[in-house]
Structure prediction request, 192 residues.
Amino acid sequence: MMTFSELLQKRRAIRDFEDKAVPLPLVEEILRDATLAPSASNNQPCRFSVVQCRKAMKNLSDESKACLLKDHDDKKIALNPQYVNLLQDENFNVFYNAPCLIFVAGPKSAGSLDVDAALAAAYIMFAAAARGLGTCWVALGANIRDPQLRGELGFSENLRIVAPIILGYPKAIPAAPERHAPEILRVIAEAR
Prediction:
């Protein structure tokens, strides 16, 4: 069993997975851990949708890519040119052909949704790493607007997707990139 410090050091973004399904009971365990994440006023706004069908993931990937490219063309967002080329590649799957995908969503009306969902996502990533699984938060996969696809995910119009997280057994765990020391701008302490 890893210590908490080891877990913090060993969790990595994984985009290359073994061709091995993640058992649904294991995914449910991870999601139970995610519900322990703090949320503003303990509102617990996060809802989850699990996708373990590669065809469905491909359809979701294609939808998200099309929506991102449309927003870029309509000048609603400015994508890095590298992303534009990648998103235009019909063979590119934003979910990296992972065996499992978890969407973290919540009510659009929840003012703290981004923070609450980010905390739940972090708990998912750490819970998965503790069980020998790899994850990656794939922001490119959050742009699902088609009502039929959203309905298949169980998402009504009042829910917003915040964190699509891919999950699976990693082929390899990359080395940790170098991290700089914390940049503490100031410490204000009681005078002694």
